[in-house]
Write a structure and sequence with these properties.
Blueprint lengths: L5 H15 L11 E2 L2 E2 H35 L4
Antiparallel strand pairs: 1-2
Length: about 80
């Protein structure tokens, strides 16, 4: 089993860091965004942004995998 590349790991860590470690910086009721507190807006927005980051990690990993297969000259 091949180890994941550093780029794909960084893509996967973006949502984790954004949700777990940044909440304490602005954990307040105000300001409000679209009628909800910013804290809820931030967390809900990361529910939609996380699949994009995972897609980026997947694309990064598959591009490095196909690139290494081409260099080795192996047929699939």
């Amino acid at each position: 089993m091949k180890r994941p590349s550093l780029g794909s790991l960084l893509f996967a860590l973006i949502p984790f860091v954004a949700v777990c470690f940044s909440v304490a910086l602005w954990d307040r009721v105000y300001p409000m965004v679209f009628g909800i507190p910013f804290n809820f807006f931030w967390l809900i927005s990361w529910l939609f942004l996380t699949p994009l980051c995972m897609w980026g990690a997947y694309r990064r990993e598959t591009s490095t995998t196909t690139g290494s297969d081409r260099q080795e000259g192996g047929a699939l």
